[in-house]
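@channel anyone free to eyeball this complex?
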Amino acid sequence: MRPGFVTVALLVLKKDLAIEFKSREIVYTTLFFAVACVMIFSFAFVMEEGVPVEGAAAGILWIAVAFSGTLALGRTFERERYSETLRALLLAPASRAAVYAGKLLGMILMMAATEIVLTPMVAFFFHAPFFARPLLLVALLGLGTVGFASVGTLFAAMLVRTRTRDVLLPILLYPITIPVIIAGVRGTAALLQSPPEEPVATLWIGLLTAFDVVFLTLALWTFEPLMTE
Amino acid sequence: MKKLFVPLAVIVAAMFVAAPIAIARADYESTMLLVQKIFYFHFATWMALTVAIGVCGVASVIYLFKGSKAADWYAAASAELCVIFGVFGLFSGSLWGRKAWGVWWQWDARVTMATMLVLVFLGYLMVRKYGGPGSEKLSAAMGIFGAATAPFVYKSVDWWRTIHPQTTVMKTLGEKWPGAWMLVWFCSLAFILLTVLLLVARVHLEAMRSRLDDMYLAAEE
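replying in thread with the prediction:
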């Protein structure tokens, strides 16, 4: 009997987390990269008096998330490619969509781990009141991460076979996920206003949900034919 | 399609000769004056782009799930057209923006999203060129996702209330200024027919290329 969708997804997730807990490679490298990103931005967006450009914090946070997310995506699938385990995963008698869902969950968790450290750090360095509306911020970050990771996991998985995957992943991923990044940045920027513009943020949360639904549906639908050689 | 190609080419050529004359004769718009005439081709390119995106998305789905080679050629050809018309549309929009908004480039929602769309289809062509063997499938994924975001680009101006004219502009134009409205659709039709023409020619080229490859392979054996 074929194992169920949820069982397979959780097994793939468990496998990825077990590897990650052993080495902590992706979380540490991604986090370090994100911090380095924020530092580089601080040179560009902090004026001479030591005051950051108004509203820069939202953009910095999201760019750091997107860049470090790309790095994590590349690494996760490089690991699968290096030991030929992706083929084994695809040969397993389980639905491919479930394999995708498992990889996606792992990706979301890893990006979330980075964001948990990154967000307070950006708030601290750029005097940004991120936590004035914590629930809205969590919704924005969570939905944005799901949107980014859903496309990213699909593209990183399908690019495993190509020689130029390192270059192609950002080239393909960024144009497609620009709407998600725009929604995330604008929504977060609305929260940074004083007082926070809740209706604006909610509008962007709605748009992010729409993007997530579209991207997730398409990814689950196309993963199977895309991964068939 | 072969029989229809030449008559269609003649019709399109005639339309493209007639369009500039009709545009030159059309009345001046009261605020934008001469610059408003950009609109006739600006709108038409985006209509052509819409058709090309639709073809690319549908053909990509058919290729991915059915593996039909012809569908792949249609998708690739329409992706090229998306880039060409997209760049043309951005250029004409930039000229328009110089007069209407005072700047060559404005980061409003529609412009940003349209640029993104052009980038998506450039990515499509890039993954095809540099992806190595099997890249047709990868580019098909790009085509599907690109086509899926296109409706968001269209609705972006209504949701985000930016300075680009809203999607209702064409409806009100039909009531207020039927002459211009007719001309806009005439130009759009000319561009859409041109898209079909280029698409057919490009797919034909790809089919010939594929046949040539097969013949080479047969000769080697």
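from a first look: Chain A touches chain B through 30 residues (CB under 8 Å).
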